[in-house]
Amino acid sequence: MLDVSLRHKFAGFTLDAHFTAPAGVTVLFGRSGSGKTTIVNAVAGLLMPQTGRIAAGDWVLLDTDRTIRLKPHKRRIGYVFQEARLFPHLTVRQNLAYGAWFAPKSAPRESMSRVVEMLGIGPLLDRRPGALSGGERQRVAIGRALLSAPRLILADEPLAALDEARKAEILPYFERLRDEVSVPILYVSHSASEVARLATTVVALDAGRVVAQGPAHAVLGDPSILPTGARDAGAVLTARVARHHDDGLTELDAGGLPLFLPRVRAAPEAQLRIRIAAHDVILSRTRPEGLSALNILPGTIQDIRAGDGPGTIVALDTAAGRVLARITQRSAAAMALEVGATVFAVVKTVSVASGDIGGGAKRQS
């Protein structure tokens, strides 16, 4: 459990953040300028805050009260940047070995063969970075960080520089890291889809302060938070693959409710995380009939949050989990929506993007 407490003033901005990062992937989530990168730079030792403490038990990286300030190279942190920052004159194998060269001899470490297999970079070992795609370079950068025997991995928006195809390529590897590697990961993102797929714990930031901390489904499903704005609002459901149908659909079991998605590459009984964007949900006061939409989830309204504009976020609890709907205030008034009312959430099968579907974490959120 990494405990982080930081306070630092810049011109026009004050960071005053306190949170804990347990095992798994802890995502620092918020809009640009909320303080995410400042925090990871302080953890890495690239920024010395005016006051603060960063520690996990007797592993103390920073304690300004005790004048403890470990130098960056003594913190045993693997840092994955937006750009891979590989050595262009070295092969992939040599870049990986460079990470292992920094690992303390007494430290437990991952084997080269396991890291290569986990990240799927075996065919790349004899290539140089210039011959790799952006996603391949990031996988190598992750492998180099792992082989340095870190006690913590920092990932500062590692997918931000990639196009959608490359993001889709690399996200499953981060899911494997979350589930198969014991090293905790502090991950920076302002993408709700990335958070929904990867996070074991979410730390939501706004204007340099922590506004919420908890499992992904709890933080993303709370309409009072929405650190990146109402347009990114959405809920996270956990479901089990029930069966694949011949017409190209996959049927999930979401808390006993059927949920149909375009064909998912997962075996029956596999656990999945699904993010359903609030703007893709329609509400009805009665069970609708004669619709093309296949997914109808009955639920009870738990919260209604009107925005500054014409929109409203409605949160309802269903057997599948918390669902958010973004509708107009006019519709909410016309339907006489209120907390405690029973409504039906309607979700089109094709509205759930493949990037919003990921493997379920072994460390349950």
Précis, in short:
This protein has 365 residues and is of the alpha+beta class.
Label this structure with key terms.
365 residues, alpha+beta, five-stranded antiparallel β-sheet, 21% helix, globular, 2 domains, OB fold (Dihydrolipoamide Acetyltransferase, E2P), Rossmann fold, six-stranded mixed β-sheet
Q: Mind telling me the CATH class of the largest domain?
A: Alpha Beta
- Largest sheet entry: 6 strands, mixed
**Which structural class should the secondary elements be placed in?**
alpha+beta
Share of residues in strands: 35-45%
Distance between the ends: 16 Å
Mean pLDDT: 91
What is the alpha-carbon Rg in Å? 22 Å
CATH superfamily of the largest domain: P-loop containing nucleotide triphosphate hydrolases
Count of helical segments? 8
Reported CATH architecture of the largest domain? 3-Layer(aba) Sandwich
Query: At the third CATH level, what is the topology name of the largest domain?
Result: Rossmann fold
EC number: 3.6.3.19
Enzyme class: hydrolase
Domain Mop: 290-356
InterPro entries: AAA+_ATPase, ABC_transporter-like_ATP-bd, ABC_transporter-like_CS, Mo/tungstate-bd_C_term_dom, ModC_ABC_ATP-bd, Molybdenum_import_ModC, Mop_domain, P-loop_NTPase
